[in-house]
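Appendix B, Record 12. Input sequence as logged:
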Amino acid sequence: MAETTVTTVPQNGIDPISGFVIKPGFEIVRANCTACHSAKLVTQNHMSRERWLTTIRWMQKTQNLWPLPQEKQILDYLSANYGERTTGRRAPLPANLMPSISK
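Logged structural output:
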């Protein structure tokens, strides 16, 4: 009986295993970021380039993240694909719909 090989084809440019957007720098980010934590920790965040850099520095200082020789490519990828968003899931509630604060 012949062995069947199944190939997963990415849909919409998303890596089916990590969930990362498949764009330049994807492999470098996947290799470095998922060595310590899940890709979901990256994909659920949307930060400016400066904030991504601050997060990397924090991980290097407190979490033993190694020096990243390809840091520029990592920051390029993260800021392009997981950069700041101008809107969240929904618009903020109007003040008149917010609960009152008792003092």
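The chain has a mean pLDDT of 87.
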